[in-house]
Amino acid sequence: MSNPFLHFGNRFLRPLLVNGGYGVFLAGQVFVRIPHLYRRRQTFKDQLFLGGIKTLHVSLLVGFFIGMIVSLQVGLELAKYGQQENIGLLVSILMAREMAPFVTAIILAASVGSAMAAELGTMKVQEEITALDVLSVDVVSYLVLPRVIALTLVSPILTLLSVWVGTLGGGVIAVTQLGLDFSGYAHNAMTALQDIGGTIPLPASLYSGLIKSIVFGFATAIVSCASGLHATNGAQGVGQTTRSAVRDSIILIIVLNFFLGKFLLH
Amino acid sequence: MGPSGAGKSVILKHIIGLLKPDAGDVWVQGKSVPDLTPDELRGLRRNMGYLFQHAALINWLSVFENVALPLKETRELSPSQIQDKVEHVLKLVRMEGDLQKYPAELSGGMQKRVGLARALVTDPRIILYDEPEAGLDPEMSTSVSRMIRRLRDELHTTSITVTHSWACAQLIADRVALFEKGALVTEAPLDAFLSDPHPRVSEFLGQSK
Asked: What pTM does this model have?
């Protein structure tokens, strides 16, 4: 599948268009092909397994420790003002709105996104993608669609689990380091998460985090697939492609996080 | 034929529409390839097969799945029809016993034969071979070249083969064209090509032999 931006005339804008413009173009192509998903169900299931089950333990472990870190750092400060009983509220809201979607997205970009870019990049340099093109196989439908949709769905599920274990990790610190009662901590955390939002009748902190995680998953998959489909120069090129896929995904996640956070707060 | 960098594979890629010419035109079956829409190009490619230099099999698909792929993706056939067709072409290339193997389990020659079966499975009228002997030992190279000739005779397809091996060309060609630095040097029937007066022909043949 050729990149319509490759021959854009302006050499300053070309790199931005080749990567960014092609990513947007690819995202559009994926949306158009969503009805093909049933036909791609086997690859879709494989990708769900790779993105979900194989990264589950990492997400849970990191989520647990992030919860503990937040609880420790914020709890000690709150304790100075005698406010440590509010630690449950802060840990759960921080995990749900920011830390869980962000950290899960970084984990997915580093593990699943890099694997996608390397796999598609290897296929590109070994002419397998050209072969699919010659055989009139729709490369976006066959390779990109199941990967993008799988990562988009896996991301909020892992985020939700990360919120849960992170809050639990925060509880461990609240009990062992701040001397709080766990049931009080849990009640505080749950109360904060049950706060219903104005626009969507769902817990506001949770849904803003889940919306972010869906966008992050989609963006990571698109950036990784777009990078892979552009790989050149053999093994060295695949290495560069993988590196740039992870780098660009992380940059995009951080930028999107700011704008989504700002938008969702209102 | 031609030395490395002569533009041989580039010509094949122009014929099948993977590249667009900077100037000039490419006509296949009465159609100007650079002017075709993506849908028209897909239609044209359905009549064409392409054997890649390194076979370009999909690594995570078995031999059967690789060969069945173009049928599953572009034809409305039942599973039993696909099964019959795949088994038939794999028999033609003598790979019928390796249906469940994966590309990594096959030798270079076997991968080429599976690539050839994949190119043949859609009953193409034109088959393009990009250096079919590349990466093979002389014995396997001769065997693949003979297979190409046999398939051409049995299936009555037009074959265009890119090679820099005179031994391969002698086995499979009716007409030979010599390219150098992106330009056609000469083109003639196989026998006439040998006695072509152009100095580059004798030079190239001397090096190739």
From this structure: 0.85
In a domain, A8, yes or no: no
Contacts of A123 in chain B (CB under 8 A): 58-59
Place of tokens 């991968």: B111
Alpha-carbon distance of B13 to B198, in angstroms, equals: 27
Count Cβ atoms within 10 A of the Cβ of residue B98 and give its class: 0-12 exposed, 13-18 middle, 19 or more buried.
middle
> Rg (Cα) of chain A, in Å, rounded?
21
**Tokens matching residue A119:** 């796999």
What is the average pLDDT across A96-111?
A: 94
Residues in chain B within 8 Å Cβ distance of A137: 69-70, 73-74
Q: Which of B39, B44, B47, B52 to mutate to test the interface with A (most CBs of A within 10 A)?
A: B52
Residue A2 is predicted with a pLDDT of 60
Number of domains making up chain A: 1
Q: A128, B58: Cβ pair inside 8 Å?
A: yes
Q: What is the pLDDT of residues A137-178, one digit of tens each?
A: 999 999 999 999 999 999 999 999 999 999 999 999 999 988
pLDDT tier at B123 (50, 70, 90 boundaries)? confident
Is ipTM beyond 0.90? no
Q: Is residue A7 part of a domain?
A: no
Query: In this structure, is residue A3 part of a structural domain?
Result: no
Domain extent, residue A98, equals: 14-265
In chain B, where are the structural domains located?
Answer: 8-208
Counted residue by residue, chain A has a size of 266
Domain B8-208 listed as CATH 3.40.50.300: yes
Mean pLDDT of the region B22-49: 90
